[in-house]
Amino acid sequence: MNSLEAPVTDTAVETDALGKRYSDGWALQDCSLRLPAGRVAALVGPNGAGKSTLLHLAVGLQEPDVGTVRVFGRDPRGDKKALADIGFVAQDTPLYSDFTATDLITMGGKLNRRWDAPLAHDRLVQLKVPTDRPAGKLSGGQRAQVALALALAKRPRLLLLDEPVAALDPLARHEFMQALMGAVADSGTTVLLSSHILTDLERVCDHLILLQNSHVQLADGVDELLAAHRTLVGPRTGGGTIPGVAAVIRASHTDRQSTLLVRTDGRAVDPAWEVRDITLEDLVLAYLNAAAVPTARTEAEVTA
């Protein structure tokens, strides 16, 4: 294969035992995951879990200490073709404050081989973002829209967003997410979106990557994860395993009743338990609240 040709792969991002260490410890450790192409993926986790580090490694801004990261089969640090396929919006949406959007679009055309200036300009006009006003004088929502338009002008195959709406008010956040999903629908771009706002993620994402304590806890399609987890409600009893339960992720109890969020094992659950579906928010909060997730636990262990 010609080295300039893109590897044939249906995987947008793949990491193998990826790790990054700083002076105070591991920011990301033993991270192995696969993000299929064409997905809109939520990247969630508490502060310090390694989300920004993972994004910076994927975009080639940092070099891993161990393991590997590949974007469409390429090394983002060692292959310029990989960088051409990546759009990135950083957490603070950095823009040259004295430059107008028009200036930034012109500059982007000089720095990128593949650049769609009309797309960026037309998006901003459609959103009524002033293109002749210095970026430093735009609102936070307008700056976020400019940053997104510039990232999309690369016509990226992969778009990485590091909490781009964290500082925005609800209306600006809604407008940003609406613009993002419209662009993705038009282009088929794979998206990896880091955010703490679970309601936004639940509305737009079909894949979930959950980091905690610098490790991957979950990485799979949202439908698959929700299908594998249930809430069980039943009488509080003191012994025996629960048929159909592979692991108890979160448990709460009253004197007479236990409520468990569990990972099922494919078998029918004991009919003594009422089985309820869960939401993405339920799933994420349960795993974030769990100090550790064992491979299997018994009813006695969580009700004792």
Which secondary structure elements does this structure contain, and how are they paired or packed?
Layout lengths: L10 E12 L2 E12 L3 E5 L6 H8 L7 E6 L8 H5 L1 E4 L11 H11 L5 H10 L13 H14 L4 E5 L7 H18 L2 E5 L3 H7 L2 E6 L2 E7 H6 L1 E7 L9 E9 L3 E8 L9 E3 L3 H10 L9 H5 L1
Parallel strand pairs: 3-7, 3-8, 5-6, 6-7
Antiparallel strand pairs: 1-2, 1-4, 8-9, 10-12, 10-13, 11-12
Helix pairs in contact: 4-5, 5-6
Major sheet description: 6 strands, mixed
Counting DSSP H or I runs of 4 or more residues, the number of helices is: 10
Q: Per DSSP, what share of the residues sits in E-state strands of 2 or more residues?
A: 25-35%
H/E element order: EEEHEHEHHHEHEHEEHEEEEHH
| Low-pLDDT stretches | 291-304
| Largest sheet, spatial ordering of strands | 5-6-7-3-8-9
C-alpha termini separation:
61 Å
Number of strands: 13
Which class best fits the helix and strand makeup?
Answer: alpha/beta
Mean pLDDT: 89
- The backbone outline, from C-alpha atoms, is elongated
Helix content: 25-40%
Taking all Cα atoms into account, the compactness measure Rg is 22 Å
